[in-house]
Amino acid sequence: MYTFVGNAYERGKQHGRALADAIGDRVSRTLSPDMDAAERIRIAQPWLDATEELDADLVREMDGLAAGSGATLAEIVLLNSPEAFKALESVEKRGCTVVGVTTKDQTVIAQNWDANPQRAKGLAVHQHRDPQAPDVAVLALPGGLGFIGMNEYGLALVNNDLFGVQTARTAPSQAIRRALLKLTDTSSAVSAMLAIAHPTVRSYVLADSTGALAAVEVLPHETPVVSTAATTVVHANHAVAPSVRAVEDRDIQESVHPSSAHRARRAAELMEQSDEESDQQGRLRRILHDHKGFPLSICSHSAPPEESCTVASVIFDCTKRQAAFHLGHACEPHAYEVVDFGATAPSAAHGRGAHGGLA
């Protein structure tokens, strides 16, 4: 676990210095050597400009990352912008299974984060402590802003890769995720998601300490589809909402993640079977461990035709404001790394309201 403290640039520079070798390795693995410096700048510029409009502090953080690691700002931007590349050309293809539940006593969301294990080298928990923004804990790769996480208010976010036929040059989704985690609750986060542009199709599940649970599927050039009525939610790597399915590239989805439908059905089945359980953390943890359909199960193990497997799992207890991270297969008996935001009261000075200054 890494902890970065200070303003955006300072935290980025600390991150860059601590992980300079790993960032350089990731740049060399992710970006083609045929792409010269001018080409990297040309591709990165629209994503950088859109991030500046969304949240200038995230650009400052990436600038600090570049300064600390020795990479260029364009390279850091591209590490955080997989949407800049065609889905089948991306070397960091990822699958995931998400589950969530809210009851009168407990609200928990959880995810198995699946990736090619060679491409997930250096995956770790990053804590960001900024005097001007909520403290946040995210799962991130070296040089990355973060994939999934929770902030000190108990607002948590998990998400799934989907595959669309269109891409818009907006702020990349990793920047969007970090911007959302500067908000205080699910309602303001959903409002922000409705107000901003999204680069491609993606599904999100958000929850907070009040018990509010939301599932959101976003798509470029259209209004996101929001569901807040359910007390449980499951999602894998295929779209559910008809308007999102209409722009989904099913051929790519089924070639990259053919297990998606099985994982979603199995998660829903296990949620229904465990409906009477009172320990929601334990309930979701057991679902993340499931091996039905092995090796392409909820706890996924590498096997053709899928390149990815479960390399991390998270359980975010929004009621307790506790974020638990487990690196490796969900079925492995390693201890979770726990960030306990519930041990202290959140700072009133850190919160942002609806839209939170997001573009």
TrEMBL record:
Molecular function in Gene Ontology: acyltransferase activity
Alphabetized Pfam families for the sequence: AAT
Cross-referenced InterPro entries: C45_proenzyme-like (IPR047794), Peptidase_C45 (IPR047801), Peptidase_C45_hydrolase (IPR005079)
Keyword Disulfide bond recorded: no
Domain Peptidase C45 hydrolase: 102-328
The entry's keywords: Acyltransferase, Transferase
Protein name, per record: Acyl-CoA-6-aminopenicillanic acid acyltransferase
Originating species: Rhodococcus opacus M213
